[in-house]
Structure formats: structure tokens, C-alpha cells
Amino acid sequence: MHVGCLKRVVVERDSVNSISLHENPQSHVPRMMVASGVGLNPAATKLIARNTTLMPDIPGLHALLSITFAPCVEFRTDPKRTRYIGALCGLGWDSETQGPALPDHDMEITFGVEFTKDDISMINQVRAAINLAVREGSWSFDVIRKIQHTAKEKLLRLVQKVRKPIPETPFQQMYRWRMVDPDLLEHPATDNDERDFLTLLCGIELNEHVARVEPEQHAREERMQLLRQHCDWLRSVHGARLKKQDIHCQLCDVMLRNPAELLLHLQTKHHKQQEELLK
């Protein structure tokens, strides 16, 4: 949370996780620890976590749980809107004060794994089930149990999903609400009810075509760079005294038996035209 981001966090000595061994120390995946209670030391310089439990080593778990159970969530995208890079979680925007409802408790989450529109849709189904169970006091026990079972199944599917890792990209304007153009918001199929405990999440319209093209373009540029380096190498060795061996021109896909043939090949019209295409 914003209020505690500058404070040192310690685990109470009596807690089961006061000393923990990382079973996978080479992993860079953030681990999540939950506590039944959090307080300040007498000097108010440290946060003390009590009755803690270390969560499983699942990539993106801290982000998933944050956006699933936070009262309000606003997603962040990269500048080209090709993917989600994070989310601001908290109590949202207060229309009366024209500011954050409780800014000290807002959390800016940066994603290290990919979250998709399908994930947001399933998260909304979990949130809707929670709202339904909490809002309606007249449900029978069997109905409540069925709602809980449905929410649990969907949540487990979200947790168990293998997600593609992405580079962590911090949002430039952190802890600021209403940073998304309203015209780009993708609203859920079901409207929010004033009695809802958790508002349903709005996605953001992504440039999916750009997201598909960029990896292909990057691979093509990388290939061209390798070919440029190969051509530089061919020019550097054509006059060198090499042992008799075949030389492969990757640009033209031609096998040359010796440096003399290589020299002649470099002067051909076809090879020069292929080199021009690399510029």
C-alpha cells in the first residue's frame, strides 16, 4: 500500500514464517506473504506482520489476487496499448472531493506476466459471485454454497493458468486515477449495482493488431542485422589466407569453394542488390 511503501516490514518472531527458506532462490518471481494482522512498532518506523503465511511460488499471483479482490481497479497499458502492464487498486475516485477516495491505501501493481481480456472476464465472474453472495441476505444455505463453489472453481482456474512472462514496465503516472480515456474503456456486459461490494472491472481497448505485428517485425529486424554482420564478415575474409573450405553466403544461399570464388561472388549484381535491401 502507498501508506507503507517507505516503511521497513518485519515479521513477528512468533509467526510461522519469521524465518523462511526460499526453495527456488534463482527465481525472480515476486513472492506474496499474507498476514492476519499488521501493526506499527512503538516508534512508527516499521510495519509488523503477524500470523503470516507464505503463498506458493506462482508467477503473477500477487497481481491476480490484488485485481480480483480490490474494491476498485484501473488497468494500465503500455504507450501503444498492445498489452496490460499493471493496475491501480484501491477505493477508486471520489466524485464529491474530486480526488482518490483513500489514497494512502492505494496499490500500484506492475505485471510481470500477461493478463488478457479473457482473464478480466473471468475475474468479473468471480467478483459478481462474491457480490451476489454478500448482497442477498435471503439466499438459502444451498444456494450460497453453490455460488461459493462456482466462484472457487473460476478462481482456481485463474490461479492455475500458465501465463506468458512479460518485461515489467512501471506506469509513468503512478497512483493517479482516471488516466484512461473513457472512450477506450470496455465495460462489462452486466452493469454495476450500487449495493455491490466489488465493482466489475472495465478493460481497455487494445491495439491487438500492433501486438501481433511487433514481434514479427522485431524478428525480421533481428534477422536483417545478423545478415548485415554476416556480409561484413564475408568482406573481411575474402582476402585472408583461409584453408580450402566451403564458404556459405547466407544472404544469397550460395556455397563458395574458396576465397577467390567468394571475391567474385561479392562483385556479382545479385549479391550487391541483396545487400542494398539490407540498408
UniProtKB/TrEMBL annotation:
Residues 249-271 form the C2H2-type domain. It comes from the Eukaryota. InterPro entries: Matrin/U1-like-C_Znf_C2H2, Znf_C2H2_type. GO terms for molecular function: nucleic acid binding; zinc ion binding. PROSITE patterns: ZINC_FINGER_C2H2_1. This is C2H2-type domain-containing protein. It comes from Capitella teleta (Polychaete worm).
